[in-house]
Amino acid sequence: MRRVLDRLYDAAAWAAAACMVGVLAMVLASVAGRLAGFNLRGSDAYAGYFMAGAAFLALAHTLRRGEHIRVNLFLERLGPRATRALEIWSHAAGAVFCVALAWYSARLVWQSHAFNDVSQGNDATPLWIPQLAMAAGAIVLAVAMVDDLVRHLRGRAGGSRGHAPAARE
Q1: Is pLDDT at 168 greater than 60 in this prediction?
Q2: Residue-by-residue DSSP string for 62-111
Q3: Interval 18-31 mean pLDDT
Q4: According to the per-residue pLDDT averaged within each range, which of 82-91, 100-109, 125-134 is highest?
Q5: H or E element: which one contains 16?
Q6: Per-residue model confidence as pLDDT tens digits over 53-68
Q7: What pairs with residue 126 in β-bridges?
Q8: Residue among 149, 148, 143, 114 nearest 128 (CA)
Q9: HSE (side-chain half, CA atoms, 13 Å) at 113
Q10: Among candidates 105, 129, 106, which has minimal Cα distance to 117?
């Protein structure tokens, strides 16, 4: 199961990287279009869609590598039992938040598809298409948060594949 989850997080990270390439392609196409004297309709919107997809798809991988920003002002001053309790509480709260985010993101995609929502720009993109990347990233993040919560409950804190959490601030 650990291998499957790690592959899921890595696949989401690769999809985020592909979205970053999409941002680059849209910006370069827009610049080239301006230099050639034509307007590439919707390139700014598509760059934004790719950027949102990259941000959401990278969240789970970043979490599993321990690279999200954490503030340890309280944890450094508590004993081991209190630290473990606070870690479990924070992971449980994070899991609840991420599951809610995933649920409402998926619901937004479904509603946009059902109501045939399109972007207000001149490209008229069906909104469920770019929202799909956000929902997928939120779902994978929810899985990663629940995974981390289970790992903390079992007493196996830390990132996947032996990565220690990044330096904390």
Answers
A1: no
A2: HHHTT-S----TTGGGS-HHHHHHHHHHHHHHHHHHHHHHHHHHHHHHHH
A3: 94
A4: 100-109
A5: helix 2-36
A6: 999 999 999 998 888 7
A7: 118
A8: 114
A9: 11
A10: 129
Mean residue pLDDT across the chain: 87
Q: Which residue has the tokens 């291998």?
A: 3
Assess contact for 125 and 133: CB atoms under 8 A: no
Owner of token pair 């279009």: 33
- The predicted model gives 28-43 an average pLDDT of 88
Angle between helices 128-153 and 43-64 (to 10 degrees): 10
Q: Can you say whether the dihedral through the CA atoms of 21, 133, 130, 96 is positive or negative? A: negative
What are the two backbone dihedrals, phi and then psi, of residue 53, each rounded to the nearest 5 degrees? -60, -45
